[in-house]
Design brief:
Number of domains: 2
Strand order of the largest sheet: 5-4-3-2-1-12-13-14
CATH architecture of the largest domain: 3-Layer(aba) Sandwich
Radius of gyration: 19 Å
Mean pLDDT: 94
Distance between the termini: 22 Å
Order of helices and strands: HEHEHEEEHEEEHEHEEHEHEHEH
Number of strands: 14
Largest sheet: 8 strands, mixed
CATH class of the largest domain: Alpha Beta
Number of helices: 10
Strand content: 15-25%
Shape: globular
Helix content: 25-40%
CATH superfamily of the largest domain: HAD superfamily/HAD-like
């Protein structure tokens, strides 16, 4: 089975992703060899026992989408019997175009940093079904942030998209969204709360969130701008992937996770083989078993190719 056309994604579509890392060009075959050497002794050769969790932004796609090399490796690994799981901070509706860009119709994803476990069927009216949803009340989190950043924008993820207290910068929220009073945000159980302070330095943003005490009661993941995803305590990409492994019958010894952001650290340290992208911060690379090339060097494709080669040895 070859990749289906990118019919879900209009021609010329760009994705809001981190800027290029600036990593020098790396020969692809050298990346594959390094990744293959990093696979531990006893790593499964039966690909039905392998699950590869791949972050999206800064890992799987650039602003132009997935490269031909990434799409090819992704589909070749699936066709050989492996499980490739898009694992992202994006919500369900923002993750869907990524599946379309990959030419994928079915499969599983951990969305909203693990708060949603989705089984895709893009030919179905709803695009698939939610296998698991972890919600929490955002009221306390919103109030904690407002004490230190009164001007913060908030987005509460709901099944149809987002409820927001004010409009976000244009193009940042891909899903349908509606402005409501902040009191209405308090009352809606949510899978994910977004906190955004346009124009604020990311370091200052992180400092203020730390002062709020938000991280004591919630999972907090700061992105590459002054944007944070807030989820229920204990709800991470790793928790969703562990549950999915149980559903699919994949042993922990066959798990691989690739990512570049703070919201990827839990799954990188959880997986049997944790992989940091070349564009990741050094502290994230330090937590990984392997550092592959940056997204612009097709580092994720190199890891998928290495797993395929290992299975054929």
């Amino acid at each position: 089975m070859r990749p289906t056309p990118r019919s879900e994604v209009p021609h010329g579509t760009t994705f809001l992703t981190p800027p290029p890392s600036g990593e020098r060009a790396l020969p692809f075959e050298e990346q594959v060899a390094r990744a293959r050497a990093a696979l531990p002794e006893g790593f499964p050769t039966d690909l039905s026992e392998v699950l590869v969790a791949v972050d999206v932004d800064g890992t799987l796609i650039t602003a132009a989408g997935a490269s031909a090399r990434v799409r090819s490796a992704y589909h070749d690994l699936l066709d050989a019997g492996g499980h490739v799981v898009v694992s992202t901070g994006r919500g369900r509706w923002a993750a869907r175009p990524v599946l379309g860009d990959l030419g994928e119709r079915r499969g599983f994803s951990a969305c909203s940093n693990g708060a949603l476990l989705v089984e895709w069927d893009l030919e179905a009216p709803e695009g698939g079904r939610i296998l698991r949803s972890h919600v929490f009340s955002p009221r306390r989190a919103i109030m904690m942030v407002q004490r230190v950043v009164p001007e913060a924008l908030f987005g509460v993820e709901v099944p149809e998209g987002y409820l927001v207290n004010a409009l976000f910068p244009e193009g940042e929220l891909l899903e349908h969204h509606r402005v409501v009073p902040v009191e209405e945000l308090w009352a809606r159980p949510t899978t994910k709360l977004v906190v955004r302070v346009p124009g604020m330095d990311t370091g200052r943003f992180e400092q203020l969130l730390g002062q709020s005490g938000l991280g004591g009661d919630h999972e907090v993941f700061v992105g590459w701008t002054s944007w944070a995803d807030v989820c229920a305590k204990g709800c991470t990409k790793a928790s969703a992937l562990e549950e999915l492994c149980g559903i699919l019958g994949v042993p922990h010894g066959g798990t691989v996770a690739l990512g570049d952001g703070s919201n990827d650290v839990d799954m990188i340290t959880w997986a049997r083989v944790g992989v940091a992208m070349g564009g990741a911060a050094q502290w994230i690379k330090d937590r990984a078993d392997l550092v592959t090339g940056a997204v612009e060097n097709d580092g994720s494709a190199a890891v998928m190719r290495a797993i395929l080669e290992h299975s054929r040895a």
